[in-house]
Amino acid sequence: MKQQWYAKKWVVIAMHIAAWTLLFSLPFLLRPSYENAHNHNDSFSLIKYIITGALWAGFFYLNAYFLMPKFIYKKKYWEFALLQLIIFIIQIIFDWILFETFLTERTYELKPAILFVFFPYIFILATSTAYRMISDKIKYDHIFQQKEKENLTTELSFLRSQVSPHFMFNVLNNMVALARKKSDLLEPSLIKLSSLMRYMLYEADEEKVPLEKETEYLQSYIDLQQQRFGNNVAVNFYTEVPDKSYTIEPMLLIPFVENAFKHGTGIVDNATINIELKAKNNLLHFMVSNKFNPVSNEIKDKTSGIGLTNVERRLNLLYGGSHSLLIKKNDDWFMVSLQLNFH
Predict the structure, then answer these.
(1) Which residues of 142-164 are buried (b: 16+ CB within 10 A; e: fewer)?
(2) What is the pLDDT of residues 145-157, one digit of tens each?
(3) Which terminus of the chain has a lower count of CB atoms within 10 Å, N or C?
(4) What is the pLDDT of residue 156?
């Protein structure tokens, strides 16, 4: 999605500079013309005013970018209030230091000074808090809209392409052969195919499903693929999910497995696919590796899978920075490693 011009970093910085410049120029712009004569004391007052303005700007960004996410968003309200009191006292101390440094001919009075600092402090605190909350709301709304759009545009493609027609035709042909042989494998194969289709058409509509269900879907898919390829490909599937309470977005893992069967079979010596799924301490570790033929010019079924690029985009929308995806090739092995934090 193309970034809007007003969201570009240099535009945001320029707008902030313009806003601060306008804010701190207001006293000079609104001052009557007959008071524009400058003297020695006015020069020192201007220096004090500029330094004070810089301190207020610093407090604005400190509160917006550090204190708010560090304390308010984590519901540490008492710590936040204590820090605000400390910052207010520090502002008064700085005001006193600047006054004694630049306005030596005048006498510093504490009570008026406290009021002089209090109202700008409340103004900056309120505006920085509102700025952070509004900017976060806009950010999260934008992400939500992206998710909604992504879900709308990919829902049908997921249902159509997660299991390719080529795969389905081969499975059905194998079942026809089993039926002719009156093989005992026909019934369990039909059950696996039925569970796979049920999951795709019904349970995949849910926002999240138990990780156990996703694992069962992967197992059914692998079993049917093994029925298709027989001894031509060795598949090793290892799972370790001691906690049954984990949930995950449906059909999030299958593209990696389908990609392994897509590129790890055919003209491949000693075709091997290794799949490992572990869930522990609120973390998912999912690894898929397959042997491939780097010089093969075999044309793969274009409807097989949605592509790792689209999967990466879906992961970024769903998990943001709370996941890592590593994809690499090593000699004749293709490896994918996914780690994500369960929400």
Answers:
(1) eeeeeeeebeeeeeeebeebbbb
(2) 877 777 655 554 5
(3) N
(4) 42
Q: Is residue 197 part of a domain?
A: yes
Report how far residue 13's alpha carbon sits from residue 100's, in angstroms, rounded to the nearest whole number: 34
Mean pLDDT of 301-319: 66
Assigned domain for 121 exists = yes
User: By C-alpha distance, which of 215, 268, 275 is closest to 242?
Assistant: 215
pLDDT at residue 336, rounded to an integer: 94
Q: What is the DSSP string of 253-281?
A: SHHHHHHHHHHSSSS-TT-EEEEEEEEET
3-class state of residue 215 by DSSP: helix
User: Residue 288 is part of a domain; what is its CATH number?
Assistant: 3.30.565.10
Q: Which positions ≥6 away from 116 have C-beta within 8 Å?
A: 95
Distance of alpha carbon 263 from alpha carbon 291, whole angstroms = 8
Contact 164, 261 (CB under 8 A): no
Predicted local distance difference test score (pLDDT) of residue 299: 47
In a domain, 60, yes or no: yes
- pLDDT category of residue 288 using cuts at 50, 70 and 90: very high
Tokens of 325: 């995806």
- Distance from the first to the final alpha carbon of the chain: 25
Reply yes or no on whether the pLDDT at 320 is more than 60. Answer: yes
Contact 291, 333 (CB under 8 A): yes
